[in-house]
Amino acid sequence: MDATLGLPILAGLIAVALMFDFLNGLHDAANSIATIVSTRVLRPQYAVFWAAFFNFVAFAVFGLNVAHTIGTGIVEPSVIDTQVIFAALVGAIVWNLITWGLGIPSSSSHALIGGLVGGGMAKAGLSAAVWSGLTKTLLAIVLSPLLGFVLALVLVVIVSWASVRSTPFAVDRAFRILQFVSASLYSLGHGGNDAQKTMGIIAVLLYSQGYLGTEFFVPFWVVLSCQAAMALGTLMGGWRIVRTMGLRITKLTPMQGFCAETGGAATLFIATWLGVPVSTTHTITGAIVGVGAARRASAVRWNVASTIVYAWVITIPASAGIAALAYWVVSLVSKVP
């Protein structure tokens, strides 16, 4: 095909994908800064700048394994076309806006994956899915918050034991400083895992239209564009979700905030290096619940946590349904003479 014939549509879809990435940063800003804000180590307006910087530079630290998983490991690349990508982005963006408006920290990552699956299956049925990659992603829904929970809980126990001879003031002062490190690591992991998902979407769109030749790869301009869009979204903040994540699940001290961020960051680093697209929202929520449960089970507001879990469960099917509807609408419109 003559790829240049679709250039205006292609450019428009890339712009929509970058808008999703911006909304991802906006929606998931809370994941990076909730603990450092709730412990009052940084004011919100400073915390978003801190998180945005590390969101952006993440591309220099991690490879592009997650982008390759999204591009070729969720839906068969042969199924991908402009309508599938458009439907996927509509499904993800609409669901993100709904949950952002309600202040529910759902997963932007799984909204995008659900949208991609919904658009692909609307076109080609169940055969559109790459079940090995999709199964790995679905398992991560359970494993990433569980790993964040366990790591954060273990860290709290270790740090509490190591600090038993220190005064509360000394512990608080030390972990206020250390939280700058843990928040940086978490923001780095967030930028590394989440921005790559949009990179994968744009790259597979370019590949499907013949712009990348015969071999799938992620162009460097796509990498920079996606990291910048996410960083700008983080700068805008997401204060409703910050309140839920940082204040309503459990009250945090600087030491607990450090443990939650470190446990969450370790989970994201492992997943990103393995090429598994995990949810930063799931990960940090699991870690925050872990530090609360280490204190005592009643310290966790389980009704708030359960509401968040319900949102996790319905995110992929909800965004997939919206994407499928968008695909069918576009198909009908395109057939109108």
TrEMBL record:
InterPro entries: Phos_transporter. Pfam families: PHO4. The keyword GTP-binding does not apply. One of its GO terms (cellular component) is membrane. One of its GO terms (molecular function) is phosphate transmembrane transporter activity. Keywords: Membrane, Transmembrane, Transmembrane helix, Transport. It is found in: Membrane. It is a multi-pass membrane protein. The chain crosses the membrane at residues 7-27, 47-67, 79-98, 110-131, 138-162, 216-237, 309-330. One of its GO terms (biological process) is phosphate ion transmembrane transport. PANTHER family: PHOSPHATE TRANSPORTER. This is Inorganic phosphate transporter, PiT family. It comes from Bradyrhizobium lablabi. The lineage of its organism: Bacteria, Pseudomonadati, Pseudomonadota, Alphaproteobacteria, Hyphomicrobiales.
